[in-house]
Structures are given as C-alpha cells and as structure tokens.
Design brief:
alpha/beta; 38% helix
Amino acid sequence: MSEGPLVAIDPGSAKCGIAVLSADGEVLQREIVAAETIGETVQAVAEAHQASQIVVGGGTGSQAVLERIVACGASTEVTQAPEGYTTLEARGRYWQEHRPGCLLGLLPAGMRIPPQAIDDYAAVVIAERFLAGKTSHR
C-alpha cells in the first residue's frame, strides 16, 4: 500500500513556503503564505490532498509554525526535519525552472538572486530530503 502525499513547510517569521509532494516525489502544489495563516492553510491543504504527513523545517519560526498547526487541530502526523542549506538549493531549483536572461546568465550561479521569494521551493527541497531519508532507511 502506497503512502499519501506529504505536505512540507519552510517556516519563517513573516511568510512560509508550502509544498505538497506525492509519495514518489512529484510536486503537486507549491505556494507562499503569511505566517499567521499557516495553521489554517496547512490544515486545508493536507485535507485537500489527503496527506499522510506534514513535515516542518526546523529553521527560523519553526516553533511558532508547529504551534499554529497543532492549534488548528491537524489530524495528520506532524514531524520536524532539518533544513540546513535549503535556501541555497531552492535558488538553484528556481533558476532551473526560470532560466536567467542573457546578462543575468553571465553571473555565476551563486551570485544570482531570484526576483521573487523562493520559500515554496525551499519547502520542496525539505520534502524531497525527507522522502529520500525515508527511502534510504527502508
């Protein structure tokens, strides 16, 4: 029996990235929401996708995010996961999907700053790492 989708959150003090990945790693949803609405939003997203688990990155604002999710009565299992260097990996992911223009393409990849928030991409990275960790322990 396969597991349901996974909801991952890149927590922050003002905004949070949310990603929903299927058990095989397909990105089903990605968005950025205000931190104060994270509990209700995650609850609705988890229910809509029939998620089997919610994973919260352990960085800035993670405790407040966990408290908001629990306060909303999440019935889905909630786990905390390490999120070191997810922002750097998320930048790379952003530029894979949005190829830089001519002049921006001349800059080394590490110097390119995306023109928009990438918290949702960081949530995808958190989910992928979590799924890879679960797979490697089986």
